[in-house]
Amino acid sequence: MSYLRFDKTLMTNLQESLPKEILRTNRSGAYSCSSVVDCNTRKYHGLLVVPVPEIDDENHVLLSSLDETVVQHGAEFNLGLHRYLGGSYSPNGHKYIREFEWDKVPTTIYRVGGVILKKERVFQHFANRILIRYTLLDAHSVTTLRLRPFLAFRSVTSLTHENSVARQDYMLCDNGIKTRMYDGYPDLYMQVSKKNDWHFDPHWYRGIEYQRELELGYDYSEDLYVPGYFEFNIKKGESIVFSAGVEELSMRTAKKLFDEEVEVHTSRDSFTQCLINAAHQFHYEKDGEEYIIAGYPWFKCRARDTFISLPGLTLACDEVNHYERVMSTCIKAIYDIIGGRPVSVQMYECDAPDILLWAMWCIQQYAIMVSRDKALEKYGQVVCDIIRFIKEGGHENLVVHDNGLLYTDGRDRAVSWMNSCVNGRPVVARSGYLVEFNALWYNALKFCASIHTTWGNHDESNTLNALADKVGESFKSTFLNEHGYLLDYIDGDYISWSVRPNMLIAASLEYSPLTKPEKKKILDICTKELLTRKGIRSLSPKSGGYNPIYSGGQVQRDSAYHQGTVWPFLSGFYLETCAKVYNRSAYSFMDRIFVGLEEELNFHCIGTLPELFDGNPPFHGRGALSFAMNVAEVLRMNRMMNDMFNL
Questions:
Q1: DSSP per-residue codes, 149-212
Q2: Is 142 in a helix, a strand, or coil?
Q3: Across all residues in the chain, what is the average pLDDT?
Q4: pLDDT tens readout for residues 388-413
Q5: Which candidate, 254, 198, 204, places its Cα nearest to that of 225?
Q6: 3-state secondary structure (DSSP) of residue 14
Q7: DSSP annotation of 15
Q8: Phi-psi bin for 456: left (phi > 0), alpha (psi -120 to 50), beta?
Q9: What Rg do the C-alpha atoms of the chain give, in angstroms?
Q10: What gap in Å lies between CA 506 and CA 436, rounded to an integer?
């Protein structure tokens, strides 16, 4: 039995099945996403969603969905499912689903009377193309299959409606058609591996409703254009492939291509394998450069997310080459920052003051997980150049004060990972001395000093160690309070006493200014006030402003984003601190942390982890369907535990 499997009882219960989503991506940033019953519930959903750089920087939904109809003895059974205005569902094809499973590829089994039809989907790795294979497992008479495509040709951030501008012309191609609704878009090629009849029968299907957009207070209904349908007979035991892509495919190769794509997928037969598969979904290539996408379906390549995610998404999966290729791209961005030039690669938010601090942490993970000597050979100079840049005041919003601590101005602009804003202003205006900034700074100074020691540059090593010692003393006198935890930030006379998880970053680092007893006190407080079965809260319920439910309109959600919501990626720093405090005796406790996250693989976007969870029970998953930092840190901690306990 597959690790990810749902039976007829669940699939036919829309209250249970509609919230479960499936996501497939490729290396170009394109994706295919819907619910497990193939009913789109978001405007971001679609069978073929691709970047169209000629238009803008967003993805665009070309093929929204594909309705299958089984025809026997003149009777038609439509397997599709759409929600229309007023919350009515039609044509209720989910009632024919017998089971759904996802081992290598998502697979749905339909039963219509004596007809048993299997549907499998793959999204091609290096082409913007969705392939769907239909196999007739059983039938007692002649069976016809009809495929009806629903087209959108619009940005994922907008909706479309019936209009007179949309083009209805098409051209025949190999066993199919190509069409393009609007100028500026690529042609959409829809083809079938078997000779078929194309029936031109253009209609607009009006008032299709997206439930998730309705719940979030956005525009939620649109009209989709259906140009006609493909029709062909299918025999018992026969497999037929449908292809939709932006380039024509030779349909003689379609079945072989489908098999090849299946083979490059690994089985989702365990918690770890599911997350490794999810990790692969974030890899992105453009113009010869490799990146990490921060999350799907709406995030782009963000610098901070990349540096926090990269070790877990690559090194924890024994994919060192992937790390090195992405880091090669990142180093170009780093030297653009140091050189005061516009960033020359497609990476966003590189000007944030903590980016270079996280870059050095990311390189340090390579030294820990791969090889210290190799890390110094490849990236040692980069670390030294970053340290010099920061020491010399090269960053306009990162100043080294006389006490050795880093100061940053975050009053009017969000400067850390807690970056939510309302009306252009930070919800949490973390400014001044930020606890994780200065912990990362201390760690980086010690790491860089060790590099110079290895290289024989003892004078430089002594200088950096002296500065690190000053930073360590100032850190403890500034952040460590009489209650045993770390203040979150201090700006002049303002002190943030809120209990937040950023102190865990300070306690988890390889080089930390904190003693083991001090780490234990921090861990105890975080365990009592921040730990949940889904990860670590962004704010203690005992602190003012606690707002744990991420729901409602945009302003309400942004206000709650870092005010008590749970972020699984923070579990990585929590578990790393556990290991430093309790060593091997922490294993059983650490292992239990994974249990609450493992059950999430059957909810929300199955096989991966969402962006965040509510801070109060029942801890509903919220935000992006699949979030790189969460997947990465769970994988990194899984690797750390395996190495630590020789599993």
A1: EEEEEEETTS-----SSS---EEEETTEEEE-SSTTSPPEEEEESS--EEEEEEEEEEEEE-HH
A2: coil
A3: 95
A4: 999 999 999 999 999 999 999 999 99
A5: 204
A6: helix
A7: H
A8: left
A9: 26
A10: 6
Contacts of 88 (CB under 8 A, 6+ apart): none
Question: Cα 106 to chain center, whole Å?
Answer: 19
What's the CA gap between 252 and 119, in Å, rounded?
20
C-alpha to C-alpha distance for 447 and 641, rounded to whole angstroms: 23
Question: Phi/psi of residue 207, each to 5°?
Answer: 75, 30
CA triple 141-143-144, angle to 5 deg? 160
Q: Which amino acid is at 641?
A: M
Nearest-angstrom CA–CA distance, 606 and 36: 9
User: pLDDT, tens digit, for every residue of 521-567?
Assistant: 999 999 999 999 999 999 999 999 999 999 988 899 999 999 999 99
- Sheet containing strand 433-434, edge to edge, reads 433-434, 489-491, 494-495
**Cα dihedral 25→13→95→6 (10° resolution):** 50
The whole-angstrom separation of Cα 501 and Cα 516 is 18
Contact 311, 365 (CB under 8 A): yes
pLDDT at 647: 55
The string of DSSP codes covering 499-555 is --THHHHHHHSSS-SS-HHHHHHHHHHHHHHTEETTEEESS-TTSTT------SSHH
In 36-128, which ranges are E strands? Answer: 46-51, 59-72, 75-78, 82-84, 88-90, 97-102, 106-112, 115-123
Contacts of 410 (CB under 8 A, 6+ apart): 416, 426, 429, 430, 431, 432, 434
Cα angle 531, 19, 227 (rounded to 5 degrees) comes to: 145
User: 126: buried, middle or exposed (CB in 10 Å: 19+, 13-18, 0-12)?
Assistant: exposed
- Cα separation, 145 vs 140, whole angstroms: 15
Contacts of 388 (CB under 8 A, 6+ apart): none
Token pair for 137: 């497992």
Plot region of 164 (φ>0 → left; ψ -120 to 50 → alpha; else → beta): alpha
**pLDDT (tens digit, 9 = 90+) per residue, 424-481?**
899 999 999 999 999 999 999 999 999 999 999 999 999 999 999 999 999 999 999 9
> What phi and psi, each to the nearest 5 degrees, are found at residue 594?
-75, -25
| Residue in the block written with tokens 């940005």 | 155
Q: What is the pTM of this model?
A: 0.94
Q: Mean per-residue pLDDT for 120-139?
A: 95
Report which residue type is found at 40. N
The Cα–Cα gap between 566 and 182 comes to 42
Whole-angstrom distance, CA of residue 590 vs CA of residue 593: 5
Q: Is 249 helix (H, G, I), strand (E, B) or coil?
A: coil
- Nearest by Cα to 300 from 345, 336, 246: 345
- Give per-residue burial for 353-385: e unless 16+ CB within 10 Å, then b: bbbbbbbbbbbbbbbebbeeeebbebbbebbbb
